[in-house]
Amino acid sequence: MLLISLYYLYHLLFLLFSLGLSRPLTGTPAGTGQNRLAVFMPAHNEENVIASSVRSILASRYPGNKFDVYVIADNCTDRTAELARAAGALVLERENKTLRGKQHALKWAFEQINLDEYDAVVILDADNHVHPGFLGVLDHYLAAGHKVIQGYVETKNPGDSWVTANYAYMFWYLCRLQMARTRLGLSAWLAGTGLCISTDVLRRVGWNVTTLVDDVEYTCQLLLSVPVFYLLPLLAERVRIRRAWTYLLTAGAFFFTWIPITAYGVVTCDQKSWWRTRH
């Protein structure tokens, strides 16, 4: 009972603290475009959404010669690869009936390109749309020395139903907690999408994710790979101490995800997401 009480007290205190924090304007602070980025979108039979998602990224206010969009068409049986390519993405088509799912698709994709040509990779879901300044904000924090960055997620359609409104609140609540952790100099927990990882980190830690909860698993791998963490109250910027770093949530790097408008749609969507991982 004590542990449960402490858990909820932690959430309450961090939430109250976060309410006093102001978010930067969406798309700020923007970098100068000095980092070269590889954006990866794992997709399994996503022909209904992939083209608009690719166009959303390609419309970013970021130098066109400084980023590439890769769609990983993973065991697709529909027109995902064709539509992604027509929308302007570089398509990596993968067929593997044994190692299926997002985590394996990403590991395979990282091995298909020369990561030395990029400063960082960005991972997005196939139905994500990004704010035009999303990549620019990531560039700013990469230039400042941050190695792992989590973007701020919101629901694209919060007013469609009570289901989407509930998801919108959940995203707001979780991102607020992460803002508090970042302001206190603590590591943010990564989500499964909207994250940016320096290629230096990928070379050091790798991408060896095998579970369904790839976001939690990779967060733990990162934490275990760096032995020293320091709490620096009220400092948001990462401070290097014996090669330690924290993982930042940046509220200015803004992206959206679509949510089904009915409870049945949420259940079937979640089942589909799990099936994608083990299809």
From TrEMBL:
<keyword id="KW-0808">Transferase</keyword>
<keyword id="KW-0472">Membrane</keyword>
<dbReference type="InterPro" id="IPR029044">
    <property type="entry name" value="Nucleotide-diphossugar_trans"/>
</dbReference>
<keyword id="KW-0328">Glycosyltransferase</keyword>
<keyword id="KW-0812">Transmembrane</keyword>
<dbReference type="Pfam" id="PF13641">
    <property type="entry name" value="Glyco_tranf_2_3"/>
</dbReference>
<protein>
    <submittedName>
        <fullName>Glycosyltransferase</fullName>
    </submittedName>
</protein>
<keyword id="KW-1133">Transmembrane helix</keyword>
<feature type="transmembrane region" description="Helical">
    <location>
        <begin position="247"/>
        <end position="267"/>
    </location>
</feature>
<dbReference type="GO" id="GO:0016757">
    <property type="term" value="F:glycosyltransferase activity"/>
</dbReference>
<comment type="similarity">
    <text>Belongs to the glycosyltransferase 2 family.</text>
</comment>
